[in-house]
TrEMBL record:
InterPro entries: TrmB-like, Tscrpt_reg_TrmB_C, Tscrpt_reg_TrmB_N, WH-like_DNA-bd_sf, WH_DNA-bd_sf. Residues 15-81 form the Transcription regulator TrmB N-terminal domain. It holds the Pfam family Regulator_TrmB. Residues 121-247 form the Transcription regulator TrmB C-terminal domain. This is TrmB family transcriptional regulator. It comes from Methanoplanus endosymbiosus. Belongs to the transcriptional regulator TrmB family. SUPFAM superfamilies: Winged helix' DNA-binding domain (SSF46785).
């Protein structure tokens, strides 16, 4: 395979990730090389089967990355790459927003129908997914939020949720430091040293989030940096970590506390 064919293959794969089919990508690349080509010329240049050229051109026209003349025979040209990529990305973003909206509707309906399966314990992988789940359950809290975690893993989005004027639940946070204003209806215990038994607060991911005495998210701090967490609404799981919370807080003494602040 020569350099030109290898380059075309690489570009084709990239365009496929933007929503084009192989034939659409090949036709678009051909039109960039030869402006004003007829369908027959496009077939010869691109290698796309003759019977497929017109259907492909129709799709590219609908995607607004090609133009057609009013002459006979018709001639076609490609939008410049900057505009074409911008158009394709805009289409992907629009489709993604539509999909997210519909999927959220399905997800909300699933939540309302599966309350009888609360004995399940779910494993969540990846720091972004763990953060998203933490924000989700905290944003829906109605009565009380309790957190044990290092300040370096308190994301900007989490601070915004805690500072939201719409937050109804009170919040108690055990952490190793706090920067900035204290959110309303929030108490922060700043721990100067690790609590006995060992409860380190400087890990990248480790933490406990208890919401409304009904939901618990426990994130791990594994040695290989592959963040994972357990989430459950199981009565036994929640009861265990409620007991753990009270055990930890009962062992916090003056030697551990650097500062206790509240709004």
């Amino acid at each position: 395979m020569n350099d030109s064919l290898e380059r075309t293959a690489r570009i084709t794969e990239s365009l496929k990730s933007l929503g084009l089919t192989k034939y659409e990508a090949l036709v678009y690349i051909a039109l960039l090389r030869f402006e004003g080509a007829t369908a027959t010329e496009i077939h010869e240049i691109s290698g796309v089967p003759r019977a497929s050229v017109y259907p492909v051109l129709d799709k590219l026209l609908n995607k607004n990355i090609t133009a057609v003349s009013n002459t006979t025979p018709k001639r076609f040209s490609a939008a410049c790459p900057d505009e074409a990529i911008k158009t394709l990305l805009s289409s992907i973003k629009k489709d993604a927003e539509c999909a997210k909206e519909e999927l959220n509707k399905i997800y909300e309906r699933r939540e309302s129908h599966e309350k009888g399966q609360q004995e399940l314990i779910w494993t969540i992988y990846g720091n972004e997914n763990i953060t998203a789940k933490t924000i989700e359950i905290i944003s829906k809290a109605e009565n009380e939020i309790r957190l044990i975690l290092g300040y370096d893993i308190i994301s900007r989005n989490l601070r915004e949720i805690l500072s939201s004027p719409d937050r109804k639940a009170s919040a108690t946070i055990i952490t190793n430091e706090w920067k900035g204003e204290i959110p309303d209806n929030c108490t922060i215990w700043i721990i100067e040293k690790d609590i006995e038994p060992e409860m380190k607060l400087e890990g990248k991911y480790a933490g406990i989030c208890i919401v409304d005495d009904s939901k618990v998210l426990v994130s791990m701090d594994p040695p290989d940096d592959r963040a994972n967490a357990l989430f459950s609404e199981s009565n036994g799981f929640v009861r265990f970590f409620n007991t753990y919370w009270y055990y930890i807080t009962s062992h916090i003494t003056k030697q551990h506390i650097a500062e206790c602040i509240s709004s």
